[in-house]
Input
Amino acid sequence: MRHPNQQRQSDRRAEILDAAERCFARSGFHRASMQDICAEAAMSPGNLYRYFPSKEALISGICERNRADAVDSFDQVKDAPDFFEALAGLAQYHLVDRTDAEVSICAEIMAESRRHPDIAKIYQTIEDEVRDRIAAMLSHAAERGEIRNDVDIDAVAGLLLAIGDGMSWRRSVDAKFSAEASLPLVLKMVHGLLAPPKAANGNRSRNGMKS
Output
C-alpha cells in the first residue's frame, strides 16, 4: 500500500499536470508561462518548482502520463477474443472519447518533438511502444486467422499509427472534422484491408458460377 504522504505527492503532481495541460491546450507550450500554470494550479511558484523544476519537466511528465495511459489501454484489450472489436475499442477511446484539450496536447507534443531533442526522445519512445503493441495484436490476430496471414505486420502497424495520428491532428486543427462520424468508415476500410478472403470465393462451383 502506498504511504499517505507519497499518495498526496502523487495526487498533487497529477493536479499540476492537469493544470499544465489546460494551459498548454489554451496557449501552446511556448506561450503558456510557469506563472500561468501556477495560477491554474492555485499554488505558489516555489511549491510548483518542488514538483517540476521547469516547463520541460512538465512536458515530460505529460508525455510519460500519456505513455502510461496508452500502455494501460492496450493492456485492457490484449486478451480480447476479437481483433477488430479490440481495435475499434482502442480507436474509440483514443480518437473519439478524449477531450479536445487532450487532443490538443497530443498535437502540441508532436509539434514540440520536432524542435526539442529531449521531447523527441520521449515521443519516439511512446511511438515505438504503441507500434510494437499494435504489431503484437496483428501477429496474434494472424495466428488466429482473424486477419490475412500475408500482410506485412510492421507496415500495417505503421499505417494504423499514421491513420490515428492523422485523425488526431485533423481533430485538433479542424473544428468541422468529426472523428466520431469518420471512425466507422475508417474501421470499414481497415477491415477491408486486413480481413481474410471468404472461403472458396463465396462457395462458387467449379464452373465459376455460384452454387
Remarks:
- Confidence is low (pLDDT under 50) at residues 199-211.
